Request: fold
Amino acid sequence: KGSDSPTIINAFQLIGMSSFLDLSGFFEQ
Amino acid sequence: FFSTVGQCFDCRQNSPRTCQYVDLARLAHDSPFSVNEVEALYELFKKLSCSIIDDMLIHKEELRLALFQAPYGENIFLDRVFDLFDEKKNGVIEFEEFIHALSVFHPNAPIEEKIDFAFRLYDLRQTGFIEREEVQQMVATILMESDMTLSDELLNLIIDKTFADADSDKDGKISKAEWKAYVLKHPSLLKNMTLPYLKDVTTAFPSFIFNTEVED
Reply:
């Protein structure tokens, strides 16, 4: 309890999947 | 003004060296980066800022190209990322702004800075709260972006559950304090706020060595 559980789906986990929020794209060109 | 701009162009034309008008030592002092790392990030900045318009400024199209390999198309996340980088709100990202924003993404940056940046990112309308409509809009965007479909029922369930967990005072919006408590309970929500690459930028952009002014 208290740590992330893979069974929890919340809206921000979905939102965090946007490629526009993954700035590692800067380094992967 | 014209003289300064002219000198900056001279600086670019005469050599690819780091522009002398950027105070590298101050940038390094005020960030988690060393001077050599700031120089290496300057190499990245040069690459990004000349991808469409060669003016040593990152335009929104260049940010979009870097992150999504396509210069066109509207995206609320891109708009927010750009706005947060563009501290002066003049429609372009300057090198200092680039360093300031990337500092937050450094693995050693304080977690409070990451929490704050993520909050401002998701507070689309900048009201000081993350509202239900904003979360709905962001979820709809990610679904569209990834060609996923979810029933309205499931979508509402996910958002209801999120607000049940995050909105402790049940006023229908997430305050910064509620956001902080929520992400500390679900630290993986801050995953995008850390770029492991930033620990190794001098290796990623070794060409800084030809232009360096110091030896760290």
About this structure: Chain B has a mean pLDDT of 88. Residues 24 and 44 of chain B are 15 Å apart (CA to CA). The longest strand of chain B covers residues 130-131.
